[in-house]
Automatic annotation (TrEMBL), chain A:
Residues 79-90 have a biased composition (Acidic residues). Pfam families: eIF-5_eIF-2B (PF01873). Residues 45-54 have a biased composition (Low complexity). InterPro entries: IF2/IF5, Transl_init_fac_IF2/IF5_dom, Transl_init_fac_IF2/IF5_N, Transl_init_fac_IF2/IF5_Zn-bd. GO terms for molecular function: mRNA binding; translation initiation factor activity; translation initiation factor binding. Residues 26-150 are annotated as: Disordered. Keywords: Initiation factor, Protein biosynthesis. GO terms for biological process: formation of translation preinitiation complex. Coiled coil: none annotated. The keyword Lyase does not apply. GO terms for cellular component: eukaryotic translation initiation factor 2 complex. This is Translation initiation factor IF2/IF5 domain-containing protein.
Automatic annotation (TrEMBL), chain B:
CDD domains: eIF1_SUI1. The gene is SUI1. This is Eukaryotic translation initiation factor eIF-1. Belongs to the SUI1 family. It comes from Mortierella alpina (Oleaginous fungus). Residues 29-99 form the SUI1 domain.
């Protein structure tokens, strides 16, 4: 038994090394390994056991989104269950296995990080915003090793062991995705270009692509700008080339956070989460109507709230005197 | 009419009083941030419940966060607490943990 585990560990380590190569290479190698280990029936089962989990790990993060993490956990438990049937002492080992896998995952993450920076983080902290909109546009929908998933998923076909729930679930999703992808919950993620924010001199910030972002959200720039100023507690203006000049120093991520809040409050439909909405004003009240599901809700007007006095009082007094 | 128990408890068409706003919205505690010169910032806390003594709250805030602050009277918004520096998260955690205020009632603004 222990020899087998060692073998397993070894194979894991080998895979670890392989991570530097691309996925297609790895696929080939694993296949050959499968062939080698076939003689002993138990070992074959082991490989099959391990294969689906690998597949789950390789599954592009985008495919399952947040669900993925949960799923992985289940997988590990599954392994434990399958092995636990043999001996009680096995439990500790399988735990070990899980840990090892975790390690492996980490190294893989580093591997992928080149092209899924943003998504990686999402996967990790689980509690991220459901609508992380500022992912770069090209990030989504990269079909990574999806063929591999299919190959490994039917792991129960050769053996006479029972299929696990997770295997069946992924099978259902695979078929669903093949036939009608719009039902598989793989909606096109709502993305917006990240705000391009530059410093203008020492005290002002230029937000260059307001107009573009407003157009993408189907909102009036005035409304967005009003919200920005109210949230940031400043003022500003639009310059000649449709850029927004904000008083004060702001970084891109700060603007991004405010925009995200704007989208949650004024763009996404609360009922169906669709960003496909229009904002209308009916006698002093703003209503948000969803184009996708047709629901209407009222949204609160933007209130700037209390503005504390900053800056020189003398300057303020001069201004007040000039106004009169 | 009055025999029906349900209808006695709440009249949806009753006047809300002088505040034209719905009761819910009025109850928010807004915590805002404002930039001053350089890296300096100002935190304002608006809409603390009436049963909180603003002066004492200010004292607690000042002591806990080791910052200065003041109480500003505004014509529309009532008294507002101003604190030096970015104390937004600290204020909200203190209000939630010590003040027994629901987290949903607190709105943190700013970046």
């Amino acid at each position: 038994m222990s020899a087998e585990i060692e073998e397993k560990l070894e194979s894991m380590e080998i895979q670890d090394d392989e991570l530097v190569f691309d996925l297609s290479m790895k696929k080939k190698k694993k296949k050959s390994k499968k062939a080698e280990e076939e003689p002993t029936e138990e070992a074959a089962a082991e490989v099959q056991e391990a294969a689906p989990t690998d597949a789950a790990e390789e599954d592009p993060m985008a495919m399952f989104g947040e669900k993925k993490k949960k799923k992985k956990k289940v997988k590990v438990e599954d392994d434990a269950n399958a092995e636990g049937g043999e001996e009680a002492g096995e439990a500790g080992d399988s735990l070990d296995f899980g840990e090892l896998k975790k390690k492996k995952k980490k190294s893989k993450k580093v591997d992928f990080s080149a092209f899924e920076d943003g998504q990686d983080q999402e996967g990790e902290d689980g509690a991220r915003d459901p609508d992380d909109i500022f992912a770069a546009d090209d990030e989504e929908g990269v079909p990574r090793s999806s063929s591999k998933v299919g190959e490994a998923e039917e792991g129960w076909i050769g053996s006479n062991r029972d299929y696990t729930y997770t295997e069946l679930l992924s099978r259902v999703f695979k078929i669903l995705r093949q036939n009608n992808p719009e039902l598989a919950g793989e909606k096109k993620r709502y993305t917006i270009v990240p705000p391009s924010v530059m410093r203008d001199g020492n005290k002002k910030t230029v937000f260059a692509n307001v107009a573009d972002i407003c157009k993408r959200m189907h909102r009036q720039p005035e409304h967005v700008i009003q919200f920005l100023f109210a949230e940031l507690g400043t003022s500003g203006s639009i310059d000649g080339s449709q850029r927004l000049v904000i008083k004060g120093r702001f970084q891109q991520k700060q603007i991004e956070a405010v925009l995200r809040r704007y989208i949650v409050e004024y763009v996404t439909c609360k009922t169906c989460k669709s960003p496909d909405t229009i904002l209308t004003k009916e006698n002093r009240l703003f209503f948000l109507q969803c184009e996708a599901c047709g629901s209407t809700r009222s949204v609160s007007a933007i209130k700037s709230g209390f503005q504390a006095q900053t800056g020189k009082r003398a300057a303020q007094r001069v201004k007040a005197a000039a106004a009169q | 009419m009055s025999g029906i128990q349900n209808l006695q408890s709440y009249d949806p068409f009753a006047d809300l009083g002088e505040s034209g706003d719905t009761g819910e919205q009025q109850n928010y505690i807004h915590i805002r941030i404002q930039q001053r010169n350089g890296r300096k910032t100002l935190t304002t806390i608006q809409g603390l419940p009436k049963n909180f003594d603003q002066k004492r709250m200010l004292k607690i805030f000042k002591k806990d966060f080791a910052c200065n602050g003041t109480l500003v009277e505004d014509e529309e918004l009532g008294s507002v607490i101003q604190l030096q520096g970015d104390q937004r998260t600290k204020v909200s955690t203190l209000l939630v943990e010590e003040g027994g205020i629901d987290k949903k009632q607190i709105k943190i603004h700013g970046f």
